[in-house]
Amino acid sequence: MQVLTKEKVKLASLNKLQVGPYSLVGQSLKRTDARLKVTGKLKYGADYVLKGYLHGKILRSPYPHALIKNISTGKAKQVAGVAAVLVAEDLPGRNSFGAIVADQPVICSSRVRFVGDGVALVAAETEELANRAISLIDVDYEPLPAVFDPREAIKPGAPFIHEKGNLIEHCKLRKGDVEKGFSEADVIIERTYTTPYVEHVYMEPDIIMAVPLANGGMLIEGPMQAPFYVRDNVAAVLGVPINLIRVKSVQMGGGFGGKDDSPIDLGCRAAVLAAHTGRPVYISLEREEVTLQTSKRHPSIMELKIGAMADGRLVSFQGTLYNEEGAYSALGPAGGVNRHSMIMAAGPYDIPNCKVDAYLCHTNHPTGGAMRGFGAPQVCFAHESLIDELALDLGISPFDIRMRNAFKIGSKTATGQILDQSVGLIDTLKACGEAFEWDRRYGEGGALDNKGTRRRGVGIGVGYYRTSTGSKRDGCGANVYVLADGSALLYSGITEMGQGSFTVLPQICAEELGISVDDIRLVQPDTDLVPEAGPTVASRSTTLMGNAIILACRPIRESIMTMAAEMLCVPVERLKAENGVIYELDNPMNSVPFREVTAKCFAEGKRLIGQGWWTPPSPSFDAETGQGNPYFVYSYSTQMAEVAVDMETGEVEVTDYVAAFDIGKAINPNAVEGQIEGGIAMGLGYALMEEVAFKDGYIQNLSLQDLLIPSILDVPNVRALIVETRNRYGPFGAKGVGEMPNIPTAPAILNAITNACGGRIRSLPADPEKVYWAIRKARESTSTIR
Amino acid sequence: MKMFCLSFKLNGKSVQLSVQPAKLLVDLLREDLRLTGTKIGCREGECGACTVLVDGQPVNSCLIPAVKVHGREVLTIEGLEREDGVLDIIQESFISEGAIQCGFCTGGMILNAKALLDRRQEPDESEIRHALSGVLCRCTGYRKIIQAVKTASRIRKEGRGNKG
Fold this sequence. Notes:
heterodimer, A: Aldehyde Oxidoreductase, domain 3, Aldehyde Oxidoreductase, domain 4, 20 helices, 28 strands, 29% helix, disordered N terminus, B: alpha+beta, Ubiquitin-like (UB roll), DNA polymerase, domain 1, five-stranded mixed beta sheet, 5 helices, 32% helix, 15% strand
């Protein structure tokens, strides 16, 4: 990481940064699970020994939209070794699941709504037998007219996918008076941008295990981001009280939001098979099945209009978003992707008049769920492209127009929220601009490279992102137990998918107690053992769970420090606990080992257990106007890309990349960089190559052969800069980082492409074919010839 | 079905067992030999998570029948660590550089790096990228992985640490 010492000092004085004397926080401690991973010893879901488990399989719809006229399972049931063949009538409880709205059938009874919808479940002794049973189930379908475009789906006369119609919700945002704003504007432009379905492509395919318990309950275990969602859904589907379901999250080989809801789907289905047969069942997906049936990033069609004064001041913003939900609600409505994309649509700019309408629409495609950024990457691509197009018309540089309008302390967002703390966007613009040498390189945009076949260009993208889900129920609980020998147990329901929570959360706990991370054992997230934590999503984990851990440590610290004060004959205020020793601040020789103090506490019945519960400041949001404070703090990022565009083939190489982030406080800088570098790679993929391609409702690229993600040959060495503007509500000033990195990346790259070759691409991905035709179009157009 | 009497060296030890001709190497390792460090990500040779070294060469174990390693030497990620628990330089470098996030691609990355460094002492960045291009990573953006290989290369060249 480039350490901009001069910059950091300047920023520190600007922001009154609390550069605290922490012993562990702010250190790039090694990951607690690194050794297990480099030796191949960490057990992922598929590494469990599953002897005696039945193999579960799902029979899926081959039609995007059809009625089920008849289903016969007789032949399938007769195969020796097949333990269960279930249809909808066999289900014991609620026949639906979902992370926010439970509207997807565990087994479809009368109608299928996308290719991949579940029609029957099978459990057998082996995978071969399960496959044979699947092939012997006869289903008579009556295909129905299908609809694949969200705008078409909500027009009158479109075939209804659900009884209530295809418009799930219409969210509205109204700030000021956009028409008045447009009438005052010197320049107005209107553009439409589109983004496709995109897959998470976590390297570890999904797997879930369901084990019936003697008390009539069920154990569900597997890679998952949201054990509590899985528990609640499985309880409803089995028709039992929640307290009979136990769910354990296994460390994931990647999640990115996809394992927020795919384990709910598979968990419910494995559970009903296990309940029916009385035996453990596992369902394991092949890569193609992951692509076929799991939730994806919502596609979006974004019709935007922006008005500005000649000096670059933005005065009016209007957006109509058509977010494609697919067949079922998943994480779209009720505060999900639809509302969030509306809130973020105008970008991190202080614009007095904003009007946004976000329509969430069913289609006969797979569901839109949670994927890193949760609606923000779509709208950020749109507003950052729009700002660049506007800047071109105004004759103002892309950097200057952003500096002029960017959020700062005191700005009012599109929802009317006044940002009163921790707003480092302009710091990121300055830091990035300086490190990237923006002014020089922008001036050289369009230059041919040394071989004369490619043109270079640079582009900016800025963005912001929430910390927390914004739901009233958002909260985190933690339990901490310190034991007689000074070792500790940490109970947290936040899961590990590679982002580093299993390192950062113990790091915060160790800092608070004054011990080392090695003295803490983090217990596997198990709903029988850990308090409610919510899902590991929305970049909330370090902040919300970090705060819960700090609160949990308080009564323990009180016992320990009081006892140490007695043992050292020094008032408590004069003591510090650090690295397993408690010492007198002015006389460090007067000290006692942490473990001696804990032993004495234990012997005298002093409390060494603590529980913390932390919720963010209460969100507010008016459903009619979209005004309020939906989230309590935001992170910010400026990203700059350099590309080389092959003028003959349309291929784009990203040759350099610098990105600056305001994330409050880097608890573990190496882990923060990891999120930045990885997130930018994901954004690069979104920009240039990622798309789940559909034809008449059928996915054309199920396998990794043509479902592309960036390889090591595609991603340049990203230079990450961290800016710290302290979040007063965050542990040690921290706020979220997990999703911020892949949000402004696509527009930074696409803006760079335009700077290089004059061609403007308004739909992702900017694959070579699109770039080629954009170059041709730019050449033919008199206003943008290069 | 006629079974095949397979004999090969696995992580330095001789192994003999009876296998079905159609059994894939990755399934033999994971199911029969309980070595689950080799991962399955795609079953079609695209992701590289199933990489093992066969006579020092990286191979997608999901694409070859186990019988193909008859008489050969196979190294899995579990075989890199020394008997006394001391890690290989490449493993240590991955840890110290922070080149591991979810860890699913880590075995494939490390083994491809080992194959590279065993035949080329000081690869430049382009050679490192090409040698690792058969393994997909969704988490790291590859930067720290490349850094880890450079670090390992430097340490090996300087003769420091254990020779992996």
